[in-house]
C-alpha cells in the first residue's frame, strides 16, 4: 500500500524540507585568518597568481552559532583567483617567472664554466657560446662582455681553484645555479642544459680533461646519473648544435 501523501501530495516535500533544515541546525564552521600573501604558481589555474596564506579555527555550530572549538585548521594557501586551497608545500614550486630566470642563469653558469675550463681563444667557441646565451635570454651579450665575464670568473681566486688543483670554485658555482633548478625540470630539460655546455666545449675540438670535469659536475648538479652524462657527452659529438 502506498503511503498517505496527505492533501495535495505534499508529504515528500515536507520530509525533504525537514532534512535540509536539520543539516543547517548543526555542523562545523571554519573561521579563516590571513597571515601572509604573495605570488605563487597555482596548480588549479595553471599559472602565476596571487595567494593568501591562511590559518583557521574550527568550531561546532548549533543553530548557526559557534558553541565549541574543534581545533585548528590549516595553514593553507588560497589562490586569489580560483579560491582553491592547497597545502603550504605548493610554495616550494617556483613561479613561471622565477623558473624562467633560474633556467636562464643555469645556462649562463654552464657556458661560462665551460669557457673558464677550456678557454676563449677559438672563434667557433665564442660564436657558439654567444648564440647559446642569446637563446637563453641574454639578448645583449657581446663577445667583449663574454670574455670579460670569463676573465672575472678565472680571476676570482676565492672561488676558482688552479687547474691542477681541480675545479672547486666552478663546482660551487654550478651547484648553486643548477641545484635549486633541477627538481623542477623534466629530464629532457636537464639534459638540454648539459648539452648546451657540451656543444660549446666541442666547438674547438674534443673535450679537454678540464671541460669533462666541469660537464660531469654540471650533470651531477642536474641530477643526471654518471651513465646518462657519459651518453649525453658522446651524443653531443654527433648531433648538430
Summarize this, please?
The protein has 241 residues and is α+β, with helices and mostly antiparallel strands.
Key structural traits:
8 helices; single chain; alpha+beta; 4 strands; about 240 residues; four-stranded antiparallel β-sheet
| Outline type | elongated
The largest pleated sheet is described as:
4 strands, antiparallel
- Give the ordered list of helices and strands: HEEEEHHHHHHH
Strand content: 15-25%
- Which class do the helix and strand fractions yield? alpha+beta
Notes on the structure:
- Mean pLDDT is 83; it is low at 1-19 and 157-165.
- Strands 1-2-3-4 form a four-stranded antiparallel β-sheet.
- The chain has eight helices and four strands.
- It is α+β, with helices and mostly antiparallel strands.
- The radius of gyration is 30 Å and the shape is elongated.
Question: Can you lay out the helices and strands and say which pair or pack?
Answer:
Blueprint: H1 11-25, E1 26-42, E2 47-62, E3 65-79, E4 85-86, H2 96-118, H3 123-136, H4 143-155, H5 168-178, H6 187-202, H7 209-221, H8 226-236
Antiparallel strand pairs: 1-2, 2-3, 3-4
Helix pairs in contact: 2-3, 2-4, 2-5, 2-6, 2-7, 3-6, 5-7, 6-7, 6-8, 7-8
Amino acid at each position: 500500500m502506498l503511503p498517505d501523501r496527505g492533501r495535495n501530495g505534499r508529504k515528500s516535500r515536507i520530509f525533504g524540507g525537514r532534512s535540509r533544515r536539520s543539516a543547517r541546525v548543526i555542523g562545523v564552521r571554519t573561521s579563516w585568518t590571513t597571515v601572509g600573501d604573495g605570488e605563487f604558481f597555482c596548480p588549479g589555474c595553471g599559472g602565476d597568481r596571487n595567494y593568501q596564506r591562511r590559518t583557521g579555527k574550527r568550531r561546532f555550530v548549533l543553530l548557526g552559532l559557534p558553541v565549541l572549538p574543534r581545533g585548528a585548521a590549516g595553514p593553507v594557501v588560497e589562490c586569489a583567483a580560483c579560491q582553491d586551497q592547497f597545502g603550504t608545500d605548493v610554495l616550494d614550486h617556483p613561479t613561471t617567472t622565477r623558473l624562467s630566470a633560474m633556467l636562464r642563469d643555469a645556462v649562463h653558469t654552464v657556458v661560462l664554466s665551460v669557457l673558464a675550463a677550456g678557454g676563449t681563444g677559438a672563434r667557433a667557441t665564442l660564436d657558439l657560446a654567444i648564440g647559446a646565451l642569446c637563446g637563453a635570454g641574454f639578448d645583449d651579450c657581446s663577445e667583449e662582455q663574454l670574455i670579460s665575464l670569463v676573465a672575472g670568473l678565472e680571476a676570482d681566486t676565492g672561488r676558482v681553484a688552479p687547474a691542477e688543483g681541480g675545479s672547486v670554485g666552478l663546482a660551487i658555482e654550478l651547484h648553486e645555479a643548477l641545484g635549486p633548478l633541477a627538481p623542477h625540470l623534466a629530464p629532457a630539460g636537464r639534459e638540454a642544459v648539459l648539452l648546451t655546455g657540451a656543444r660549446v666545449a666541442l666547438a674547438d675540438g674534443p673535450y679537454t680533461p678540464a671541460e669533462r670535469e666541469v660537464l660531469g659536475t654540471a650533470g651531477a648538479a642536474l641530477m643526471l646519473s654518471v651513465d646518462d652524462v657519459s651518453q649525453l657527452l658522446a651524443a653531443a659529438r654527433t648531433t648538430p648544435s
